[in-house]
């Protein structure tokens, strides 16, 4: 049910923008670590969107509720990798996934920000929503405790392959955390579809950024 009242939060300005000619390097601080993210203007997936900031902040502040230490975490649509890096700092075994054209920048950001840390080494993998899931991530081998997704729904997303991907990875016991900026009717339509399939709760809202953070678990029947 969506009736529980979500907490209202503000995305904290905990980064210092630096500008360079080709790439923007954004400097963030989460869980006591400075994280430097290289963005690319060529791809949607290579910019830090507000949902990523919201989820990173929430994971940092709610470590008792969502303890990622030694948990298996999959991020779908990882983009620049900020959320995966934060999950890695929090002690998770992270698999960060996105489209092939985004992987180079994603791998660069993740390796640069985690290489000197005493954390589980994160993995970066290609994942096209709804395609080759059984071949690339066979159920017998892959079981994730958490699925993380931020700003994966926008006005030109194909919602059905995304939903199919979420459903594929969400086994009994898996928690899906999805943060998204809600702008278009398509965003709300996707939310409605999600609620029809999963047990869904709004954990937090960030009204200034129009971001909602939701928790979803698979219905066991």
From TrEMBL:
One of its GO terms (biological process) is methylation. It holds the Pfam family Methyltransf_16. It comes from Spheniscus mendiculus. InterPro entries: Methyltransf_16, SAM-dependent_MTases_sf. The lineage of its organism: Eukaryota, Metazoa, Chordata, Craniata, Vertebrata. Signal peptide: none annotated. CDD domains: AdoMet_MTases. It comes from the Eukaryota. One of its GO terms (molecular function) is methyltransferase activity. Keywords: Methyltransferase, S-adenosyl-L-methionine, Transferase. This is Protein-lysine methyltransferase METTL21C.
